[in-house]
């Protein structure tokens, strides 16, 4: 596990996309699960100040891309479970596509000559 | 989609507490699960909790970030900022009261002045399309002497004489009516007073005498009935009247009045219409009666035989004031070239030049405002300066607070508050202070409105009263917000941000002020002093003017004199009946114990400014040429009038009852008239003519300042009331009685002779004098008040800066006095920097005052704008409190005990 200093900040503006992607893949998840999943999936390269997940989740709720339902965890604790909506899926597809376009363009610029 | 998003936001807004609780629960769960995971990995409970918190970040920040997402963040924060600011201010009541008080003064004064300026200059006149209304100076209202009516005897042609037709060339109303491309409506009006005959309550009314086109020109039709038609007002035509809504309600209780008759000066007038509520142009008119065109003696029969008339017009569509003015001037010039032999041919180029300067068509609002514009602007400027001084003062207070608060704020910034948030919070505090100040100022403003009303010309009083309305409220609120930002932003910027750790490390106690802050504070004080000096110079010049004016020889003594006015127009019996009333009234009064003398005059000095001037021919005098033709004010008085008013009889004798219509005409003339027409010679016994037999000069009296105090007296001539009996008189009586008793005795004397005789304007001559100088006195009073307040604020500013500087440097003073510095050394150390500030402030202020004084030149009397006395004395007036405000706190430097200071470190 790389030490904390080696972790990279999540590029600005991509947190929404990562959350939407994670919830799509995992299905119904609560906040802590989403944070863990993002870190695990990025093999711990991406670091998110865990608290900053929550303003992002609020934004996605307001946008109507996620819905939240209160439920119980395996340990019987109350947690809010997030599920993606149709609009959220559409938004994710849109963001992924534009991300790839930008990444491709940047890659082209950085390609060694 | 967007609608649903808005609904979701609204849901969060309404269930905000629940949403916040849910969010907190969610975030707490997150930290607990993280800590559990870490414990499972082998960390101790404490370490795990700490690491979980670290990885989560500041929960408050995230919560705030979430609330921002809900879109309520800023509103929420604003409420919080204001609540916090209010709490902080409650903990510092002294500071809050000082700031709010200072601001209330500044904002209250500015708001009250604004309401006056707004009424007089900014608010459009309450007529349709008021910008089209113009007055036309110099345009004549044609007069037809005719043969009807009973003109003043002096004007009546003698046997075999023709009434002199005006040989002057003059542009008149008919010429203007013909200019259809420029003017759509033309009307003339005059303003006078009549008595409403009523057995119970005779009332003096303001009367508008107006042509039939007057109401259509203004665009205001009658609310009930109709206005005038062209035929009314002609000699022998029906006597009709239009009532104001106010009079209709007050006097007649709003009952049916159309086709009813009212008695004005004992003559019946038929009511044909009632104007809408609030309409009282010109000059707070209660009623309107028609003016015929041309006017005749009968038009003004009810008045003193003459009223000055003015011409009002409405611009035709598609023209402008400038264009109309140019066309009028062109008409004047056409007239000059057409009629080069006119008697006033030599005056005409002068008239045209005047019109070029002031405009041949002047917007109505501007002409109603008259010469008050400068005074209003000067006072509004003065309140503006006062407000600036108040702001500088408050900025200084906030700055010293800011130094104390720097630590608190630095700590909060370390704890994660953003700088923007801190600035917003500090601004919320100053805005709260400013708005409270504005509110308090608004409460103070109405109290000053009564005073301000005397500043507004009487011509505007009925049209545009000064009042606190929504505009003024908005003005005050904006002023409050603007000042709050102006004086709050700078300290807020200084307080927040910067090197946090240093601020915290720098420790407590004296706080640390950078040199920059002190420079600013001193700069603010220098500015305050400069602005104060400008106001003081303004006040000084106004006070000197007022002193000069009141010190003038008025030619009479107004003390212990009472006066009331009566009108005999329309009374049965004419001249003889009038004398039958006046004579016994005067006899009764002179027999009253405590009354020394009593008399009557047709025009009370300083009373109304009306009156008649006539041209005369001096027997044996040089042939008149151009505008040098001799003229004089025509006055009619009883023999004891001069004694009553203490007008010195310089030569000859006063009137006797034998000086009547049967005796050869005699006159008493003023010293000025004697000097003007009989230079070098004794005027006594010489003769002059006023359309008739020669009049012999039997006495010479002092010149009386009778129009206004600041106008030099014109030549004056008095005729005996037995020869020329006026239809309106002012009764005057001098006595040692208390003024109220004197006035009661005067009314009793009139009513003992004729119980039905209406009297009006019952007042002391001192009150008449006081009213005549009221606008000037108000100007002087207000600017002196503003200057005084400015002086107080500036002194407080100096005091605060010195006190702060002494407190800050107490360590240094302790060390210095330990090293042997004397008290004087320390005092001069403290005073020296304030001396510089004062010197700079004074120099800037003097320069500013020198430059600005000219602006107010027209308001001065008997002093030059650069009056040396004012410019020498005023800086001294400013220096005294400044020196006191420096030395008082500076003394504290002397009391610093070196040992204590050292120990405190």
Main sheet characteristics of chain B: 10 strands, mixed
**Uncertain residue ranges of chain A:** 1-5
Mean pLDDT of chain B: 81
CATH class of chain A: Mainly Alpha
Calculate the terminal CA-CA distance of chain A, rounded to whole Å. Answer: 34 Å
Jot down its keywords:
heterodimer; A: 113 residues; alpha+beta; Arc Repressor Mutant, subunit A; two-stranded parallel ribbon; two-stranded antiparallel ribbon; 4 helices; 4 strands; B: alpha+beta; 8-stranded mixed β-sheet; 28 helices; 52% helix
Description:
The complex is a heterodimer of chains A (113) and B (905). Chain A is α+β, with helices and mostly antiparallel strands and 113 residues long. Chain A has one domain: Orthogonal Bundle (Arc Repressor Mutant, subunit A). Chain A has 4 helices and 4 strands. Chain A has helices spanning 15-26, 31-41, 53-63, 86-110, and strands at residues 8-9, 46-47, 66-72, 78-84. Chain A has a two-stranded parallel sheet with strand order 1-2. The longest helix of chain A is centred in the last third of the chain and has 25 residues, at 86-110. Residues 1-5 of chain A have low confidence and may be disordered. With 905 residues, chain B is an alpha+beta fold. Chain B is built from 28 helices and 22 strands. In chain B, strands 1, 2, 3, 4, 5, 6, 7, 8, 9 and 10 form a 10-stranded mixed beta sheet that branches. In chain B, strands 13, 14, 15, 16, 17, 18, 19 and 20 form an 8-stranded mixed beta sheet that branches. A 4-stranded antiparallel beta sheet of chain B has the order 12-21-11-22. The longest helix of chain B is centred in the middle third of the chain and has 43 residues, at 372-414. The two termini of chain B are 66 Å apart. In chain B, 42% of the residues are buried.
């Amino acid at each position: 596990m790389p030490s904390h200093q080696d972790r990279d900040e999540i590029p600005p503006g991509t947190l929404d996309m990562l959350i939407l992607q994670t919830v799509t893949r995992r299905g119904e998840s609560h906040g802590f699960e989403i944070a863990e999943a993002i870190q695990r999936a990025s093999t711990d390269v991406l670091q998110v100040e865990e608290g900053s997940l929550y303003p992002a989740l609020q934004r996605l709720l307001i946008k109507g891309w996620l819905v939240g339902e209160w439920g119980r965890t395996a340990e019987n604790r109350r947690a809010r479970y997030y599920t993606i909506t149709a609009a959220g899926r559409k938004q994710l597809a849109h963001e992924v596509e534009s991300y790839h376009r930008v990444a491709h363009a940047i890659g082209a610029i950085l390609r060694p000559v | 989609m967007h609608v649903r998003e808005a609904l979701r936001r609204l849901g969060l807004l309404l269930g905000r507490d629940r949403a916040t609780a849910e969010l907190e629960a969610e975030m707490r769960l997150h930290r607990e699960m993280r800590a559990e995971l870490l414990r499972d990995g082998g960390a101790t409970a404490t370490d795990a909790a700490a690491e979980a918190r670290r990885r989560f970040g500041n929960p408050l920040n995230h919560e705030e970030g979430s609330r921002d997402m809900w879109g309520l963040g800023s509103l929420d924060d604003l409420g919080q900022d204001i609540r916090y600011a209010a709490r902080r201010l409650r903990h510092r009541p002294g500071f809050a009261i000082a700031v709010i008080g200072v601001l209330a003064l500044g904002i209250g004064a500015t708001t009250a002045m604004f309401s006056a300026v707004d009424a007089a200059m900014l608010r459009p006149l309450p007529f349709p399309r008021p910008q089209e209304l113009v007055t036309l100076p110099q345009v004549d209202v044609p007069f037809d002497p005719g043969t009807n009516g009973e003109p003043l005897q002096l004007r009546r042609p003698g046997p075999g004489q023709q009434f002199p037709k005006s040989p002057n060339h003059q542009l008149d109303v008919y010429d203007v009516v013909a200019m259809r491309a420029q003017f759509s409506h033309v009307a003339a009006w005059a303003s006078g007073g009549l008595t409403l005959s009523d057995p119970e309550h005779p009332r003096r009314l303001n009367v508008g005498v107006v042509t039939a086109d007057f109401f259509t020109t203004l665009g205001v039709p009658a609310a009930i009935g109709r206005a005038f038609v062209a035929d009314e007002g002609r000699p022998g035509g029906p006597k009709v009247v239009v009532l104001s809504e106010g009079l209709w309600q007050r006097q007649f209780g709003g009952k049916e009045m159309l086709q009813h008759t009212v008695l004005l000066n004992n003559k019946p007038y038929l009511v044909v219409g009632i104007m809408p509520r609030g309409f009282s142009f010109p000059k707070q008119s209660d009623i309107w009666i028609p003016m015929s065109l041309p006017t005749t003696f009968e038009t003004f029969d009810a008045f003193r035989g003459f009223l000055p008339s003015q011409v009002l017009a409405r611009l035709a569509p598609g023209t402008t004031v400038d264009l109309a003015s140019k066309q009028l001037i062109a008409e004047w010039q056409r007239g000059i070239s057409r009629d080069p032999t006119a008697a006033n041919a030599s005056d005409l180029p002068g008239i045209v030049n005047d019109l070029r300067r002031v405009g041949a068509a002047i917007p109505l609002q501007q002409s109603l405002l008259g010469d008050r514009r400068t005074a209003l602007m000067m006072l509004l400027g003065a309140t503006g300066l006062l407000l600036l001084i108040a702001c500088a003062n408050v900025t200084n207070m906030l700055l010293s607070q800011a130094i104390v608060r720097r630590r608190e704020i630095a700590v909060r910034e370390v704890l994660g508050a953003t700088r923007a948030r801190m600035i917003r919070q500090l601004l919320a505090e100053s805005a709260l202070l400013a708005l409270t100040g504005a509110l308090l100022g608004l409460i103070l403003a109405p109290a000053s409105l009564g005073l301000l009303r005397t500043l507004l010309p009487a011509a505007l009083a009925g049209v545009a009263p000064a009042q606190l309305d929504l505009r003024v409220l908005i003005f005050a609120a904006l002023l409050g917000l603007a000042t709050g930002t102006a004086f709050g932003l700078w300290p807020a910027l200084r307080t927040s941000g910067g090197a946090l750790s240093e601020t915290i490390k720098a420790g407590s106690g004296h706080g640390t002020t950078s040199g920059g802050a002190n420079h600013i504070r001193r700069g603010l004080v220098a500015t305050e002093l400069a602005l104060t000096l400008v106001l003081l110079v303004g006040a000084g010049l106004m006070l000197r003017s007022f002193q000069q004016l009141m010190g003038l020889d008025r030619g009479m003594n107004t003390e212990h004199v009472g006066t009331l006015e009566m009108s005999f127009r329309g009374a049965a019996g004419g001249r003889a009946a009038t004398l039958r009333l006046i004579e016994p009234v005067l006899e009764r009064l002179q027999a009253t114990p405590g009354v020394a003398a009593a008399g009557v005059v047709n025009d009370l000095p300083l009373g109304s400014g009306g009156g008649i001037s006539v041209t005369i021919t001096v027997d044996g005098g040089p042939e008149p040429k151009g505008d040098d033709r001799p003229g004089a004010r025509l006055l009619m008085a009883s023999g004891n009038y001069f004694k009553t008013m203490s007008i010195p009889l310089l030569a000859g004798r006063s009137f006797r009852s034998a000086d009547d219509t049967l005796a050869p005409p005699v006159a008493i003339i003023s010293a000025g008239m004697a000097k003007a027409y009989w230079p070098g010679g004794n005027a006594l016994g010489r003769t002059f003519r006023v359309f008739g037999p020669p009049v012999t000069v039997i006495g010479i009296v002092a010149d009386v300042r009778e129009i206004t105090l600041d106008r030099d007296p014109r030549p004056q001539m008095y005729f005996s009331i037995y020869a020329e009996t006026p239809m309106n008189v002012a009764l005057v009586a001098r006595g040692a009685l208390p003024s109220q008793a004197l006035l009661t005795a005067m009314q009793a004397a009139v009513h003992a002779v004729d119980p039905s005789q209406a009297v009006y304007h019952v007042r002391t001559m001192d009150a008449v004098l006081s009213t005549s100088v009221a606008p000037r006195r108000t100007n002087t009073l207000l600017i002196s008040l503003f200057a005084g307040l400015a002086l107080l604020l500036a002194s407080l500013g100096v005091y605060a800066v010195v006190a702060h500087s002494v407190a800050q440097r107490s360590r240094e003073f302790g060390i210095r006095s330990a090293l042997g510095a004397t008290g004087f050394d320390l005092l001069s150390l403290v005073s020296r920097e304030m001396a510089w500030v004062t010197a700079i402030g004074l120099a800037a202020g003097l320069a500013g005052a020198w430059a600005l004084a000219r602006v107010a030149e027209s308001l001065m009397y008997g002093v030059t704008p650069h009056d040396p006395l004012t410019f020498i004395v005023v800086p001294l007036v400013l220096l005294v409190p400044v020196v006191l405000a420096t030395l008082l706190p500076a003394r504290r430097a002397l009391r610093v005990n070196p040992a204590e200071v050292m120990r405190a470190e």
